[in-house]
Amino acid sequence: xxxxxxxxxxxxxxxxxxxxxxxxxxxxxxxxxxxxxxxxxxxxxxxxxxxxxxxxxxxxxxxxxxxxxxxxxxxxxxxxxxxxxxxxxxxxxxxxxxxxxxxxxxxxxxxxxxxxxxxxxxxxxxxxxxxxxxxxxxxxxxxxxxxxxxxxxxxxxxxxxxxxxxxxxxxxxxxxxxxxxxxxxxxxxxxxxxxxxxxxxxxxxxxxxxxxxxxxxxxxxxxxxxxxxxxxxxxxxxxxxxxxxxxxx
Length: 249
Ligand code: PGA
Fold this sequence. Notes:
Elements: E1 5-9, H1 16-30, E2 36-40, H2 43-53, E3 58-62, H3 79-85, E4 89-92, H4 95-100, H5 105-117, E5 121-126, H6 130-134, H7 138-149, H8 155-159, E6 162-165, H9 179-197, H10 199-202, E7 206-210, H11 215-222, E8 229-232, H12 239-247
Parallel strand pairs: 1-2, 1-8, 2-3, 3-4, 4-5, 5-6, 6-7, 7-8
Helix pairs in contact: 1-2, 1-12, 7-9
The structure holds 2-phosphoglycolic acid (PGA).
């Protein structure tokens, strides 16, 4: 049985005082869950969030990192830096970074390897655009991304990679994939992993759904056979709605 991982993605929202309030409010609401609870926060909130989450079951993640350890990369933050303050997770290859910041499958692949070198758990995002879906290419796109993003990883690294299937047309739009479509896409990702790494490894990979997941639709999505959690944007900004998703059974 795979453990479910419910991860919030705050994107470019929340000042430190808001982060502290949200996590303080969230902690008692999610303390009894069996699911893994993660909040991926802006760099400026990391330290405050880590301190506030101390002694709770809430884990803290970043939303990006550079693949080099250090050097002349103005404005960047390395995996080693994240690890040094106690960060445990990092989102890699979110579609907004692919779309606006030139993230490619090659850089995603390098970043995943660096994440593992620094003992960070990567949450790797894949997903198709609306045009790609309408052209019947959704599975081809996500299978391709999965293959390129995981290229050269060891079996153990693949087993410890979290993949978030996030159809781009569902992100922040209020449109959610149907649970059947979302599950089918997650299944395709798992089958792709079976091809290269075999059934045993693929069965261990946590595959989340992301894209307008909210309390009203989370229960159904999370009950599907191949959906092992969620990556949640908008609904993770408020303790109450995020807790409802975490606690839905
Ligand atoms: P959303 O964002 O829940 O606001 O659609 C999800 C994401 O981009 O990870």
